[in-house]
Amino acid sequence: MSPRPPMERAEPWPRPELMLLRADVAGIPVPLSSLVGRESELAKARTLLDRPNVRLLTLTGPGGIGKTSVALHLAADLAGNFRDGVCFVALEAVRDPALVAAAIAQAVNVQPRPGDDLRDGLVAALHAADMLLVVDNFEHVVSASMVLTDLLARCPRLTILVTSQVLLRVSGEHTLAIPPLALPDLQSSPSSDDLFRSAAVRLFEQRARAVDGSFDLTETHAQWVAEICRRLDGIPLAIELVAPRVRHLALPDLLSRLDQRLPLLTGGARDQPGRLQTMRNAIAWSYDLLADRERRVFRRLAVFTGGFTLEAAEWVVRAGSEEGDPERQLGVFDDVGTLIDASLVHIEHAPDGSVRYRMLETIREFALESLETSGEGDEARRAHASHFLAFAERHEYAVLLEDVDQGLIPLEADYANLRSALGWLDQAGEHGALLRLVTSMSLFWSDHGYYREGHAWLSRALATPGPVASDRARALVAIGMIEIFLGMHQEAETNLTTGLAECQDHDKAFDAGLALIGLGCLATIQGDLERSASFLESCLIATRRVADERLAWILEGWALINLAVVARTQGDLALADLQLAGALDCMRGADYAVGVILALGDQGDLARDQRDPARALELYREALGLGWGIRGRRITADVVEAVAVVAVTVGQEARGVRLLGASEALRERVGLRFRVVKNQLALDQALTDAQAVLGQNAFATAWAAGRLLGAEQVIELASEPFPIIPPRPERPSASGTLTRRETEIARLVAAGETDAAIAASLFLSVRTVENHVAHILAKLGIHTRADVARVADLHPEPLPPA
Questions:
Q1: pLDDT value, residue 277
Q2: Where is 136: in which H helix or E strand?
Q3: pLDDT at 789 over 80
Q4: Which of 28, 476, 648, 760 could disulfide-link to 499, CB 3.0 to 4.6 Å?
Q5: Largest Cα–Cα distance of the chain, in whole Å?
């Protein structure tokens, strides 16, 4: 910002007592500590104040965010740009808006003559002044805003910088919100450098060293400090209150005590105003400035976790109001707007143009305390649970029908609130509502890989007394489908069988179709391909009873994909090709992105079975190209694993093992234990081949490196083109039907060995052996282990030629 040129103009008003108008920072408090992490805000403020039309700039933000510190450093930076300097007006002790003009007059050393109007005297003194007037802590005297606008109107070279928790809402006002300090994204496994560069972490380190010179921010410490700062929302005052505790507590202990933040956020510097001695005081200062109605809204909004929409806020705030109550008719939007202006709530804009509202967690903790004290807690939580039950039922199929590229689906955006509603319904004994909510969330849990959590809630809800029969039927199907993913096959078959019968009794066509698909999948795993095909063909017939056309297409697509698995297992690749083409048409017709990815991935598996790795990779990469919006879910993990298997078969063993390690890490995180038998066998063979080529050490190194990759890195690696070396020809097995590994396992089965014993002798997992045995039975067309020795040719293979 360049200095403003002097302005030649007549001065009709004398300035007899103006003593501070000189190019310095006299009267500006000197900060005793450095300003950390506010480079961006200072630059934005300077840019604004450099514009000729910006003469009133308000720095806003909640208590403790550092508005005054930014204003003081900004004033010191800009002092040389104003001919008559900078003057600071502290309004901390001013309680009466009528005294604001007097406080300004005192700061600029204006003493009007007896009988003169104070504001006229100020104008007389400041009329030609080229000055920056910093007015600090204005929120509690905001009704005096006209004093500032009057000065600006009558003093053309005056510029005013205000700090306030609320907007002045006057003509000519420009605003700059001071946000919390930047925090590292702990979800993306930041590097040590990312942690050390974080403004919040740097502030904690600085304040901790001020009280303990031996404090050392090691890499381990930086992780703890980053999490502490995240819990404190990056609020500078909160960090400054907590950091000195390192004198008495180790960082892990300090972190564990932040489950309740406010009791720990005390002990501020004695030279600070009382409102900044504790975080509770800072928030209470803002709360006390609200009208009674606004306080009620603020308290009730505390029941939301992870943000909320205006619709949800209106539901919760208006709960308990009588029909004729004027408050019921009052616009909650206006009250939420007031809380935003008061920096107690902030607004978040989504890429699709929608907005959500959120409280910083430290502020929310204060609001929760106030809610409990008011006696409105149960009523607000009941309204919250009621809203999110209706919300979940309304958006149950959004996971299938919403466009993933448009951003978060509704249940994903409000998942924290849904978890909170589940907890309250369970605690309150609202068993029927709990069962309805968990059932409505089951597709979401399955799609996002929350298998363990979904299973736990469905089990809990089904165990409660007196559920509605139709709700119970749908819940049984939901838990059975999740149990397939968790590898709980016996439990899944029981629940799906019962759920199918009850859904058919209550005309729940979509859920009945899901049950048939699940039972077909289980029959395939068990090697009973005829029974599997029967279930899946019944599902195709059942889709005619599904009222929603898109849901019917999705159900048909799932059935065809599973029928293609049966055909692949039987060796009928032409039939599998036709079925997958039909499935892809269904999924595209329904505009179901996850289903399209699933169908493309299975077409890639079919191309791999046909020994066409180039075509397989082309299909896998097309699937991954659609998977950016849903990276990290089960379906993309399966495709990545498939790319890895092909990579190993075409001579890219190290790349393949890295991808296999990444896919396995994701499967472990979500508890996924389901694989198509044929894909399990391909995976086992790829692992064996890669170990043989790379050796144990290189294999372990590549596997470990893959497990550390983030979701985006995994998709990028899997999508990169790589050279294809013609796959090694497969040596025929002695049996002519079974592979070498299958023949080896079949011999042990014929000898009467259990799956556990076979797994131990061959260094395989029990589940891998189970899958091999199921595949052997299917290939040989038998149903019992006892028939293996009778049907299969189990003579030892000849040794390969030297």
A1: 44
A2: strand 131-136
A3: no
A4: 476
A5: 120
- Pick from 187, 188, 221: which is nearest to 202 by CA? 221
Q: Is 470 part of a structural domain of the chain?
A: no
DSSP β-bridge partners for residue 715 = none
3-state secondary structure of 238: helix
Token couple for 592: 């179901």
44 part of a folded domain: yes
- Please give the backbone phi and psi of residue 128, each rounded to the nearest 5 degrees, phi first: -105, 10
CATH number of the domain where residue 346 is located: 1.10.10
Query: What amino acid occupies position 370?
Result: S
User: Which of these, 449, 413, 358, 384, lies nearest to 633 by C-alpha position?
Assistant: 449
Q: Which helix (H) or strand (E) holds 424?
A: helix 415-428
Q: How far apart are CA 300 and CA 70, in angstroms?
A: 32
Q: Per-residue pLDDT tens for 520-545?
A: 999 998 889 999 999 999 999 999 99
The last residue of a domain, from among 260, 280, 300: 280
- Total structural domains within the chain: 5
Say how many CA atoms lie within 13 Å of 218 toward its Cβ: 5
Closest CA to 179 of 59, 290, 276: 59
Q: Are residues 274 and 297 in the same domain?
A: no
What is the Cβ-side half-sphere exposure of residue 341, based on CA atoms within 13 angstroms? 17
Stretch (H or E) spanning 329: helix 326-329
CA nearest 620: which of 581, 646, 594? 646
Beta bridge partner(s), residue 163 = 59
Model confidence at 785, in pLDDT bands (50, 70, 90)? confident
Between these two residues, 802 and 666, which has the higher pLDDT value?
A: 666
3-state secondary structure of 760: helix
What residues make up the domain containing 770? 740-791
pTM for this prediction: 0.71
**What is the arithmetic mean of pLDDT over 738-743?**
73
The label of the residue with tokens 């007896």 reads 114
Question: Amino acid identity, residue 287?
Answer: Y
Residue 761 to residues 253, 456, 471, 796: CA-CA distances in angstroms? Answer: 47, 35, 47, 17
Residue of 81, 80, 82, 122 whose CA lies nearest to 101: 122
Residue 762 has pLDDT above 80, yes or no: no
- pLDDT more than 70, % of the chain: 83
Give the tens place of pLDDT for each residue, 27-39. Answer: 577 665 678 888 8
